[in-house]
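hey m, so remember when u said the C-alpha cells were messed up on ur end? i reran from scratch. heres the input so u can diff it against urs
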Amino acid sequence: MPISSSIGLGIDAGGTETRWALATADGSLLAEGTVGGLSALQMASNDGRQAVHATFTELACKVLAVARPDKVHAGLTGFGGDGEQLQQWLAGLLGIAPGAITLCNDIDIAYRASFAPGEGYLVYAGTGSIGAFIDADGAFHRAGGRGVVLDDGGGGFWIAREALRHIWRNEDECPGRWESSPMAHAVFDHVGGADWAWSRQFIYGQDRGTVGKLALAVAASAEQDPAAAQILENAGRELARLAQALIARFGPRPVALGGRAAALHPAIAASMRASLPPGTILTHSTTRAHHAAARLAAIHLAAAAP
C-alpha cells in the first residue's frame, strides 16, 4: 500500500538510464529505482517526445507503487531551461501540481551531490562528459558538455567511438587484423558481428546511451589489449582537460570525478590524476545524484512546512 506522508522525488535522467529516489521530509531515503534513459534534447522531434513520455509513464508507475511525492526535483541531460511540457507531463502522471516540480540540468544535481557552491569542480563522465563549477553566487559554469557529435571526450560514447575507429582503421590497412585483437572480439560480440554492417547499424542506428554502453566491452578487454588500455588512458586525459580549463578560469580547487564511465576502469582515474596540475586534490565521487535530488526536494518540503 502506498505510503502517505510528505515525500520528495529526485530524478537523475541520463542518456543510458534514468534513476529515481524517494526521500522523506527529514531526508531519509525511502525507495529508489531505474527506468530507461532519456534526454531533454529528444523533445525536438515527435518520436523523441513520445519516447520521453513513455519513460516518464514507466517512472511514474514505479514511483506511485510506493508513494505519491509532494515535491519533485529532476535533473535531465540536455536540459536548457524550457521545461513547461516536461513539467505538465510529470505533474499529470504523478497527480501533483506543475509548480511542485523543479527541473534543471542533470549536472546541477550531480555537482550539489559532491560540493557546496564555490567549493570545487565536478568532472562528470557518463554517456557524455562535462566539467562543472557552481560558484558561491549560484552561477553555473561549464567546460565541455557540448554533445557526443562535437566532443564529450572521455565519456562512454567517446570511448566506444574511439574503439570502433581503431578497429576499422586497422581493417582498412590489414583486413582480418581484428581476429588477433581481444578488444575487437569484445566489441564485435557486443555489436552483433564482425561485418561492417553490424558496426554501421550500431553506431548510426542506436541512441547515444546504447552506443555508450559499448565502453563496457572496451574496459573489459583492457588487461588483454594494449589498444583498449590506451583508449582508457586517453579518456582520463580528456577528463583532466575539463578540470584544467576550470582551474585556469577560476583558480585551484578540489576536483571530484563522477559518472558511470569514470568508474569503468582504474586506468581512467589514474590517467586523469597524472594529467592534473601538481597538488590538485582529486576524489572519486560515489554520491548518487538521484539521492541528492530527492533530498533537495525533501529540504524544500521541510522549508515550506509551517
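this time it looks ok to me. The two ends are 28 Å apart (CA to CA). if urs says something different then somethings off w ur setup not the seq
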